[in-house]
Structure formats: structure tokens, C-alpha cells
Amino acid sequence: MAKRDYYEVLGVSKSASADEIKKSYRKIAMQFHPDKNPGDKAAEEKFKEAAEAYDVLSNTDKKAQYDRFGHAGMGGGAGHGGGFGGMNMEDIFSQFGDVFGDSGFGSFFGGGGQRGGRRQGTRGANLRVKIKMNFEEIAKGAAKKIKVKKHVSCTTCSGSGAKDKNSVQTCGTCKGSGQVRQVQQTFLGQMQTVGTCPTCSGEGTTISAKCVSCKGEGRVYGEETLTLDIPAGVFDGMQLSMQGAGNAGERGGSNGDLLIVIEEEKHPQLKRQELDVIHQLFLSFPDVVMGTSVEVPTIDGKAKIKIPAGTQSGKLFRLKGKGFPAFQSYEKGDQLVEVNVWSPQTLTDEEKALLEKLNQSPNFQPSQDAKEGKHDKSIFDKLKDAFA
């Protein structure tokens, strides 16, 4: 099922301010929150959809990418569990709980967006890496193995941050709820507010003895080898998101994401123009006059094309389907071969004499149409002819 436009999901325009986007998301999240709609799968999906839209439109870089490329610019499928893109409920409550704050809405739904009022550690930070891709890899997709230095879960304490199980105790202040309630007297009467427990920072537990390996953080700095399955059709500057492959969170908090920026390597003989590939073919004067067959480079090897006799400089030949595939689409570009006549830089006396003799022949003089510019076509006209 095709994804809906993110602006449509939140009911805002492209010119909406950050406050308007946040306000709209808050309203929709309140309407479809799972705690308000228990067992309602349709409401849960709308809740997730709104969170996904807010995740993009509230981020300046992601919003610019989305405005330019739409959903195709937001990443596609990949490996490492969950793949690129998508959000689960844990991430939504972890990332966007502060949107609701400690208001009545936050209290009703478990304090600041945390389910049941208790949060688990602190979410890890995102990581950003650049991946270089050549033309063939972009056209076919590629598996890239990389080593990433980052925070990883502590194996000694399994990410808890405690020396052992007996070192983890229920918080005495909030009795394990992660929240504290206060009653204040106002001119409207008694008002009850709910806030994060200051003793355990909302975790519901305290640690009496810290893990010696991670010093209580539940994570250590290390290195991880990842295999990135980059789909075909990516382009220079495109950003993919690999969920959960970023820094490990503190004390059992969810992992951050790995943001992968595509860096397109230049090809020595081909040039990319969106989905199409352009090759400049240089031929000698005798070859274009008499015609010839030549091999030209393509993304995945070589192709043979026939050059008819009398081919003019600037002529475009099309190799259908030899371009790039569109990202997550069946559309595919072509390769355009532009003929250029190569003029020799130096001539011997004998060569000069031959050319002067040939130049006297009527066949070597431009036609009247050529003199009047009737054969001059713009690059757009040539492209039109090539695709006709």
C-alpha cells in the first residue's frame, strides 16, 4: 500500500511552521494514542503514521530531502533487523514523549509519552556514515561491509549498568512507577500534577553497585561490523536510515539509527543525468563519412553500435534500458551516445595536400540547408529525436 503524503497525514501545508507541525502532530497523537484506543489496530496504525510524518517534517534536513524527492528520498529496505526506515512503538514513545510534556495529556497517557510512566534508559544517538558507490553498484544494488566505531551494549551486565541482579532495586521514591505525583492548592481548587521521578530519572529502579566494565552506563565504546544491503537506484546525496544500528542506549535504552549518505563515484567515461547515462563518442572524420561500427562503454560492460555513413557531429544514439533504475520503481533510464568528430591537431604536408584536394569536391561542401542553419538543432531537439 502506497504511503500517504506526510503533509496530508498531519493536515498541514508545506509552508507550515515548526510550531504548527508540532501542534498538529500532538492533536493527532492524542486522538489515536494506543492507551486511549486499546486493541484498536487501525488507531495504532494512524498513531504510527503520524509519528513517522512528524519524524520527517520536524527535522530540517529530512524535510528538505522529502520536499525534493518525496518518499523515495526517505530510504528503502536493507538488512540488520527492521531495515531502513519505519518506526516502532518503543521509538515513538522514546523520541516524541516530550511533545506532550507533563501536561494532563502526558499524565493521562503515562507521563510525558512514556507508556506506564516508566522509561527504560536513554535512547542512543544516531550515527552518520558516507558510503561510496560506483555506477554498477548503483544500478544493481550492493552489499557493503563496514566497521563502525560506536557505543555498544555492555556484555558484562547485558546493558543494565548494574554489577549484578541484586544491585538493581526498586526506586523508593516512586515505588517503581517512574513518576511522582504532587497535589497543589490553586484558586480553582486542588490540582494534581505528575512528573518524572527525580531519584531514578523515570526508570523506576536504582543501582546500588555499578558494573565495573561500563561504570553504570550499560554500554561501552567499541566497534561493530555491519553489512549494508544498499538497494538499486540510489543517488548522490540520498540518505538511508538503518533502524537500531546507531549508538547503544544507556541502561537498556533503545539504540539510535545509522544514517547512510550515498556518495556517487565519478565514472571515467560516462556521465549521469538523473536516470539516463550520457557518453561522448569521438570519431575520426573518415569514420563518420563512410560509417563504422564501434564499441561504447555502458554501466555493466560494453555495447556495439553502428554509425551510419554521413553521420553528423552532435548526433545522438539511444541505447534503451542501459541507464539507471529508479529507486523502488520499475522505471529505467537509457544511455545516450553523442557523436563528436575529432579534428587532428597536427598534419603532415601530404595530409594537408589530400585535404585541400578533397575540399574542392562538391561533396565536401556544406549543403544549402546546413548553411541556412536548418539542420541546427538544440540539445532538447536531439534528445527528442533520440527518444522518438
Brief write-up:
The protein is 25% helix and 26% strand. With 388 residues, the chain is an alpha+beta fold.
SSE layout:
Blueprint: H1 6-10, H2 18-32, H3 41-57, H4 60-69, H5 89-96, H6 104-108, E1 127-133, H7 135-140, E2 142-153, E3 168-170, E4 179-186, E5 189-196, E6 205-207, E7 219-230, E8 239-242, E9 258-264, E10 271-273, E11 276-284, H8 285-290, E12 292-298, E13 301-307, E14 316-319, E15 335-342, H9 349-359, H10 368-371, H11 379-387
Helix pairs in contact: 2-3
Task: Outline the structure in words.
With 388 residues, the protein is an alpha+beta fold. The chain folds into 2 domains: 75-264, HSP40/DNAj peptide-binding domain; 271-387, Urease metallochaperone UreE, N-terminal domain (HSP40/DNAj peptide-binding domain, Sandwich), CATH 2.60.260. Helices cover 25% and strands 26% of the residues. The protein has 11 helices and 15 strands. The strands form 6 sheets. It has a 4-stranded mixed sheet with strand order 10-11-15-14. A 3-stranded mixed sheet has the order 1-9-8. A two-stranded antiparallel ribbon has the order 2-7. β4 and β5 form a beta hairpin.
